[in-house]
Amino acid sequence: MTLSTLEIWIVILALGAGTFLIRFSFLGLGDSAHWPPVILRLLRYTPVAVIPGLVAPLVLWPAATDGVPDLPRLAAAAATLAAGLWLRSPIWAILAGAAVLTVLLRIEAVV
Amino acid sequence: MSDRATRQAFRRGVRDGAPFLLVVAPFGLVFGVIGVEAGLGLAEVMGFSIFVIAGASQLAAVQLMAEGAPVAVVLATALAINLRMAMYSAALAPHLGSVPLGRRSVMAYFLVDQTFAASALEFERRPEMTAPEKAAYFLGVVAPVCLPWYGATLAGALLGGGLPPGWGLDFAVPITFLAVVTPMLRTPAHVAAAVVSAVGAVVLWALPWNLGLLVSALAAMATGALVEVASERRGAA
After folding, report:
1. Out of B51, B104, B221, whose CB is closest to A49?
2. Do B197 and A49 lie within an 8 Å CB cutoff?
3. For a pLDDT cut of 90, what percent of chain A falls above it?
4. Which of A105, B39, B127, B156 has the lowest tally of Cβ within 10 angstroms?
């Protein structure tokens, strides 16, 4: 962690305050709150617009291997994706990814 | 409005929220472990889960902080993940807007994916509920969803330092993110947005301060909205 304790708390408190304001926005305005539909349409895609972009470089270039693409981690990501799409359940997706990663890392350690 | 109906609404909320425990508890545990492994202290890990109470953005913030991103980039990326909650707030405002401001503020704090999903479904199913009953239902869902979040984070943070290295714990963040996001890929518009986001972030990886992620996220949001409009037109034609 390269940030100082002060900077870490700035992140925590600013992220907390910003997130609260996002949640409070329309509820705070009461039942008369209306925004243009185009804004709501864009907001609908924020998680799927941010999270894949965050994950893709972590999967391709893992920090643990100094950025060298790595078979166990690629396979674990694929297993998570497949289980998430197939079973539509985050828990089973995590378990599938963790199982594949654990098994392949054990094999790699032995070989 | 009767007190009895309000209490029943609260109990229905507790019952409908209980299954989410299976998602919230492991996620809180993962965040606690990851936070400590990234070098945060116990108070800082708990600070995240108490002040922010939004797991995906907390994980993103910790990941970027560990990579050495500047504070402004950490905040912009993590807040972008939480922008969806403005949509939740807009969807619930017609139902809960007449509730007193103090209570609305409390509900805003607890407005997470699960409390929104359960409430939106219930309010659609039972339009005859009064606003105070709807508020009671919402707070009922909060009990099994949000309160265990703190405990699970604490358990993960206490456990964190004790886990052996070499178990691929570094990869818990991408796996958790993938697991959270894939069930959201319900429509072609969501899939298109996710593809633009992932490809864009990889192609623009060399940009400083993770700006490539923010640029591809904006492009991905626009893509999702455009594909949605296009498929609606096709459906209407």
Report:
1. B221
2. yes
3. 53
4. B127
The shortest C-alpha distance from A94 to chain B (Å) reads 6
Domain shared by B204 and B154, yes or no: no
State the complex-level ipTM: 0.85
Binary contact (B108, A24; C-beta < 8 A): yes
- The answer to whether B131 and B96 have CB atoms below 8 angstroms apart is yes
- Picking from A88, A67, A61, the residue whose alpha carbon sits closest to that of residue A77 is A61
Structure tokens at A68: 């060298």
Do B219 and B124 lie in a common domain? no
Judge if B159 and B48 occupy the same domain.
yes
- A93: chain B residues, CB-CB within 8 Å: 175, 178-179, 182-183
pLDDT band per the 50, 70, 90 thresholds, residue B120: confident
Helix ranges (DSSP H) in chain A: 5-29, 37-43, 46-60, 71-87, 90-110
A-chain residues near B79 (CB < 8 A):
15, 18-19, 22
- Please tell me the predicted confidence (pLDDT) of residue A86: 93
Q: Which residues of B touch A14 (CB under 8 A)?
A: 75
**Domain boundaries in chain A?**
1-33, 35-110
What is the domain range of residue B234? 185-237
Question: pLDDT tens digits, residue range B12-50?
Answer: 999 999 988 887 888 898 899 989 989 999 999 999 999
Q: What is the mean pLDDT of residues B147-151?
A: 95
